[in-house]
Amino acid sequence: MRTSGRRTGLLRATALLALLLAWCWAAFGPKAPPEAPEVPSPPVALQPLSAPEAPAPDPKAALHAYEDDGIPDSRLYVSEERQTYRSGDLRLVIPLLSLDTTLYDGTTPSMLNRGVCLYEYASLPGRGNRNVSIAGHRNNRRAGVVTDDAPFYYVDRLGEGDFLYLADGQFVHRYVYETTYVVKETDWSPIFRQGFSCLTITSCEPIGVNTHRIVVVARLDDIAPAGEQAVFYENIQALQAAEQARRTQLLAALIGRAVGLAALLGGAC
Fold it and tell me: Which domain holds residue 154?
């Protein structure tokens, strides 16, 4: 009986001791760390709107980039027909200047020394937005003296009512004078397409100096079959007489200079 009572007392004492230890731990033991405050999640970054899908190409819009027999809108462009051009395919006639010459292919120095040249970016004659742009020397030099035996020495004399002609073997294209102006040598805009069919002449300005360019523009006025050769000239006799007078004047000037030089040398002796 005594043994059983002792065991019961021991169990009770153990239970009380366990409860006491639990209370002490709860009261004085280490505290659990406080819960971290909730951190709000960062806002969702706004994504840029995706670019709208490009619309399907419009065949009409694509065709709009090409006008006037397939010549594109770009300002300087070598057309397929221009690539086929050969020196002599076009003939230029300007009655007022007593000029009747073929057009050479390209504006290299060697070609310009031969005569009037067709720019590499030029259009060929025809209706529509075409610019037949050409270049030629304004003067020559002999013994350091400026001479007028160059295609465009007198190009500044062209004015209202004057006609210029281009023939391509099938048709004669008649152009009527439109305007004259001067640009710097670095300005290529005169040979851009001008919004109408035209012939554009460029040459040095002033005479004997190449810092600027004189530009003469003539608008397409009419097209006639090449067989009608009479349309070339307003007055062929006047043209021939003017050419003869120019040559006579040049010869007289050269003789005068020679006589003056001989007199100067004779006086020096």
Answer: 84-258
